[in-house]
Design brief:
By secondary structure, the protein is α/β, with parallel strands linked by helices. The protein has a single domain (about 5-170), classed as 3-Layer(aba) Sandwich (Rossmann fold). About 45% of the residues lie in helices and about 25% in strands. The protein has a 6-stranded mixed beta sheet with strand order 2-3-1-4-5-6, sandwiched between helices.
Length: about 200
């Protein structure tokens, strides 16, 4: 059985909680003093979905504008992208359009995406409604969840759903390849049969 390695890339504004989400998922820890990432870092976690073991390479990118150029090469090879904004920071939400453009320009057309509205535990400080997040997700045709790294809300679910979707993509791709191969075999067999009949007719004549 093939060994599966999925590269997942986190993007979004600095301070949205990307690093905290990754640490919660990979190490089951949270620190309110977590320092925003200033470059590129990654964690590895192996999980099992539908009887398949999948190694996740989870890449954490800095959200600051000056680090965008560093992040661009890391879009290559990404099978899943987790786009994060902070529900208590409207600017991080408004900047989603810029991040989506970056995805369109630098990532594969086949990459799976999910949108996370993080820090949903901070209801008193919320400035972006759930409905607004859902609307953006619908606009781009991607799944949406509100999460809290602090209270571990929907963190596992986000990774599970994204990984499962990638697995389904791979399965569909393989089925499609097999179907195309079967069609090609059928075409070549028919062509060979036709050549054989033509040769037999020529010799008989």
């Amino acid at each position: 059985m093939d060994r599966l390695i999925f590269k997942l890339l986190f993007i979004g504004d600095s301070g949205a909680g990307k690093t905290s989400i990754i640490l919660r998922y990979a190490d089951d820890c949270f620190s309110s003093n977590a320092v925003s990432n200033v470059g590129i870092d990654f964690k590895i976690k192996t999980i099992e979905i539908k009887g398949r073991k999948v190694k996740l390479q989870i890449w954490d990118t800095a959200g600051q504008e000056r680090f965008h150029a560093i992040a661009y090469p890391y879009y290559r090879g990404a099978m899943g992208i987790i786009l994060v904004y902070d529900v208590t920071n409207r600017r991080s939400f408004e900047n989603l359009s810029t991040w989506m453009r970056n995805i369109d320009e630098h990532a594969s057309e086949k990459v799976e995406k999910i949108l996370l509205g993080n820090k949903c535990d901070m209801e008193a400080q919320r400035v972006v409604s759930r409905q607004e997040g859902e609307a953006v997700a619908r606009q781009h045709g991607i799944p949406f969840l509100e999460t809290s790294a602090k209270n571990n809300i929907n963190i596992d679910l986000a990774f599970h759903n994204l990984t499962e979707t990638i697995l389904l993509d791979i399965a569909l791709e393989r089925l499609t390849a097999k179907a195309e191969a079967a069609k090609e075999v059928k075409r070549l067999t028919a062509a060979t049969d036709a050549d054989s009949k033509w040769s037999s007719w020529c010799c008989y004549s």
